[in-house]
Amino acid sequence: MPDRSTEGMKVRRAVLGDAHVGRPEAAKTPLDEAFQTLITESAWGTVWASDGITRRERSMLTLALLAALGNFEEIPMHIRATINTGASKQDVMEAFQHVAIYAGIPRANHALKLAKQTYTEIEANDA
User: Fold this and answer.
1) pTM of whole model > 0.90?
2) E strand or H helix at 84
3) Contact (Cβ atoms closer than 8 angstroms) between residue 12 and residue 24
4) What is the pLDDT along the chain (127 residues), one digit of tens a residue?
5) Alpha carbon of 77 to those of 31, 81, 102: distances in Å?
6) CA 25, 31, 34, 36 torsion: positive or negative?
7) 99 and 68 Cβ atoms separated by less than 8 Å
8) Does Lyase count among this protein's keywords (predicted)?
9) Crossing angle, helix 89-102 and helix 105-126, to 10 degrees?
């Protein structure tokens, strides 16, 4: 059985980047240590580490699910992660179109607004 914590941290850093992952790791306290372990082992060490679908596809699914469920605060983070997963702007738009049809236009509209803002920030930082 693979070490889900080690693999999870490896995948988490590959997808989100060292700087992003380093912040919660540096701020970890006894209060949230078990939660951070849960995220690393389950989301990153099990789901994202699976080779059943590509990271590009996982990005698209994750963004669609976040938007559909109204978990908008994580959308910018996962838009930034598309740089590492290979999901294009068009891929993201396709995912949000599915959200519009199956979960509602207001959620997809807000997710798209966040995506546009995040892409603008990314492009400004690259300039």
Assistant:
1) yes
2) helix 75-85
3) no
4) 569 999 999 999 999 999 999 898 899 999 999 999 999 999 999 999 999 999 999 999 999 999 999 999 999 999 999 999 999 999 999 999 999 999 999 999 999 999 999 999 999 998 7
5) 23, 6, 23
6) negative
7) yes
8) yes
9) 160
Count the residues in the chain.
127
Of 13, 10, 35, 31, give the one whose Cα is nearest residue 22.
Answer: 13
Amino acid at 55: R
**Reduced to 3 states, what is the DSSP secondary structure of residue 80?**
helix
Q: Which two tokens stand for residue 32?
A: 């949230």
**Residue in the block written with tokens 């959620």:** 107
Distance CA 40, CA 8 (A): 5
Tokens of 24: 């919660």
